Amino acid sequence: MQCFFVQLKTKLGRAYDVADALARRELASEVYSTSGEYDLLAKFYVEDEVDVGHFVNQNLHDIDGIERTYTTLTFKAF
After folding, report:
1. Rounded Cα–Cα distance for residues 38 and 67 (Å)
2. Contact (CB, 8 A) for 2 and 50
3. I need a labelling partner for 32 at 20 to 30 A (CA). Which of 6, 14, 50, 72 fits?
4. DSSP tag of 50
5. What is the H or E stretch that residue 7 is in?
6. Is pLDDT of 77 > 90?
7. What are phi and psi of 14, to 5 degrees?
8. Which long-range contacts (CB under 8 A, 24 or more apart) does 54-63 make?
9. pLDDT per residue over 18-54, tens digit each?
10. pLDDT confidence band for 76 (50 / 70 / 90)
11. Which of 63, 61, 69 is CA-nearest to residue 14?
12. What would the 3-class secondary structure string for 28-47 be?
C-alpha cells in the first residue's frame, strides 16, 4: 500500500461541502480542516500499482467546490 496526502483549496465557503463529498466517496482514510493556504487535508491509501496522479484526477478533481489540490507522496512511516 502507498500513502499520500492531498491538500485542497476550496471556493470561499465550500470547505464543509467538499469535506462532506469526500466523506461520502469513502476514499480518504482521514479528512481534516486546516488553517493556512489550503482548507482541507485528506489522507489516502491505495494499492502499490495505482497511479496516484490518475487517482487524484479521477476521484477528486470532479468534486464541486475544489479550486486547487496539492499532493504529497510519502515514502516511509517512522
Report:
1. 10
2. yes
3. 50
4. S
5. strand 2-10
6. no
7. -110, 5
8. 56/6, 59/25, 59/27, 60/6, 60/8, 60/22, 63/18, 63/21, 63/22
9. 999 999 999 999 999 999 999 999 999 999 999 999 9
10. confident
11. 63
12. EEEEEECCCCCCEEEEEEEC
pLDDT digits (tens, 9 = 90+) for 55-74: 999 999 999 999 999 999 99
Q: What is the pTM of this model?
A: 0.92
Candidates 65, 16, 8, 73; CA nearest to 46 is 73
All 3 cell numbers of residue 20? 462532506
Question: Looking up cell 479521477, which residue turns up?
Answer: 58
